[in-house]
């Protein structure tokens, strides 16, 4: 009888095969065959915040057990809305960039703000100067809104004050806070009437800073007046406001007779008149001289400390 047909050989083969099958069931089957899973476990795995587990443990008060009781879904949505409310303080950026907003580019889609600026400031305890600026609304601030962005509420440290540079022209006008966020909402030059009103409001802010002995605020106001003059003049000289070629960087030739040219020239002159008045203001001249002297001494002390 051949060896592979012997009864002992067949029994050994059968035992080996059974051992392999049992090993497969013990080791591999749990990873291949589906097993029942509690659907709540799947929901919890997709909910890293743990909201589902807290919602299951939440007990509805007896007074809300009737037909008028808030549903669990509405309760969950309300809780999420309350948590996200403090993060909804920045308006959606409007297309067209900064200049497009200043010029009042028309947007076909307008998103309603969930609440007024006063309500958002009260709810989030946001400092007055950091409340979202009103530029996205593309309208002149009302008296109430002007009081919101009237003046910065947090005083700068001496190191922060000394970091400010008068610079050349409009240097730092859109970067130095909190003054940038305080004055920017007042800055407009779409047409002559808007430019006159804007320059008047900025000059009023200039005088308020003078009363507070705040030279940086005065100089930032002066820079916004100068920027209104130069930006309006650019739109008067170049259709669309582009002064340099986008690809080569070379200065483009001035255009003539384009739409809005006369309006922008008049708007530029409106800003120029107020800008000249601000530069010649006695308080501004005195505070500028004092600030530059103080800053020079500060820079010298900082340099000596660094060398030591």
Automatic annotation (TrEMBL):
<feature type="region of interest" description="Disordered">
    <location>
        <begin position="36"/>
        <end position="74"/>
    </location>
</feature>
<dbReference type="GO" id="GO:0033617">
    <property type="term" value="P:mitochondrial respiratory chain complex IV assembly"/>
</dbReference>
<feature type="region of interest" description="Disordered">
    <location>
        <begin position="237"/>
        <end position="265"/>
    </location>
</feature>
<dbReference type="GO" id="GO:0005759">
    <property type="term" value="C:mitochondrial matrix"/>
</dbReference>
<feature type="signal peptide">
    <location>
        <begin position="1"/>
        <end position="28"/>
    </location>
</feature>
<keyword id="KW-0732">Signal</keyword>
<feature type="compositionally biased region" description="Basic and acidic residues">
    <location>
        <begin position="242"/>
        <end position="265"/>
    </location>
</feature>
<dbReference type="Pfam" id="PF14328">
    <property type="entry name" value="DUF4385"/>
</dbReference>
<protein>
    <submittedName>
        <fullName>Cytoplasmic protein</fullName>
    </submittedName>
</protein>
<dbReference type="InterPro" id="IPR025494">
    <property type="entry name" value="DUF4385"/>
</dbReference>
């Amino acid at each position: 009888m051949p060896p592979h047909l012997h009864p002992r050989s067949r029994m050994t083969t059968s035992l080996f095969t059974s051992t392999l099958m049992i090993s497969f069931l013990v080791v591999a089957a749990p990873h291949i065959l589906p097993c029942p899973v509690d659907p709540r476990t799947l929901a919890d795995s997709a909910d890293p915040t743990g909201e589902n587990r807290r919602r299951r443990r939440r007990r509805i008060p007896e007074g809300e057990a009737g037909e008028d009781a808030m549903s669990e879904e509405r309760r969950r949505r309300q809780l999420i809305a309350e948590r996200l409310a403090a993060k909804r303080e920045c308006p959606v950026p409007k297309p067209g960039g900064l200049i497009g907003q200043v010029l009042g580019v028309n947007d076909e889609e307008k998103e309603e703000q969930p609440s007024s600026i006063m309500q958002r400031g009260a709810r989030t305890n946001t400092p007055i100067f950091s409340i979202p600026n009103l530029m996205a609304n593309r309208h002149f601030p009302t008296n109430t809104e002007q009081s919101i962005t009237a003046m910065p509420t947090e005083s700068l440290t001496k190191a922060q004050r000394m970091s400010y540079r008068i610079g050349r022209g409009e240097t730092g006008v859109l970067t130095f806070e909190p003054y940038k966020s305080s004055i920017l909402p007042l800055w407009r030059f779409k047409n002559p009437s808007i430019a006159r009103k804007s320059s008047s409001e900025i000059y009023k802010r200039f005088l308020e800073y003078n009363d507070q002995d705040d030279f940086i605020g005065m100089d930032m106001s002066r820079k916004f007046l100068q920027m209104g003059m130069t930006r309006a003049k650019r739109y008067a000289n170049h259709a669309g406001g582009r002064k340099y070629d986008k690809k080569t960087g070379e200065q483009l030739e001035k255009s003539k007779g384009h739409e809005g040219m006369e309006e922008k020239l008049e708007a530029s002159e409106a800003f120029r008149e107020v800008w000249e008045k601000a530069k010649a203001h006695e308080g501004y001249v005195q505070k500028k001289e004092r600030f530059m002297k103080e800053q020079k001494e500060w820079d010298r002390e900082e340099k000596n400390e660094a060398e030591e």
